[in-house]
Here is the input.
Amino acid sequence: MFRKFSGKDMQSTQLKTSAIRGLKAKLSTQFPGCEEYVEDIVPKKNMMQAKATQHLLVYYEKESKEIILFGEKDGPLFPSLRVLHKYPDMMPKLRVDTGAIKFVLKGADIMCPGLTSPGATIHDEVDEDCPVAIFAEGMVNPIAVGVTKMSTQQIREVNKDVGIEMCHFMGDGLWHTPSVE
Here is the structure.
């Protein structure tokens, strides 16, 4: 999603207070674990929305220009990894084994065996098409954000094919662009 993202030449608009409230409500509904710090994640005022591509929106704070959230138009919201490092418990977690780390850091989708082998852990039970934080064995902070392509129960049972589609990972264009220019 962000392999060649640069954060330049995006059309930005300031969000109205009602739109910010809607963003907070959507975030709280989508990730029940972040209700206690949604006020810290999304500022009350000075929130901007930028159109990165035709369907991809990026939300950032006006003063610091730090990218906070992103998502497809009418789709789920995702926190940037920098926000996720501050609030690691805000979304469901899955942990990959050490063999999958190098592939995840190159942006590859995560295969089911990388989530079910020894060293990997399915911390939270989730359904299909659910945004998740991807942690790595032996690491404290998440290394990627993705969307499940099947439920965690199916991941265990099938143990083949793509389990998580990658959206944002350490080393992609969004990671190297901490703020909007």
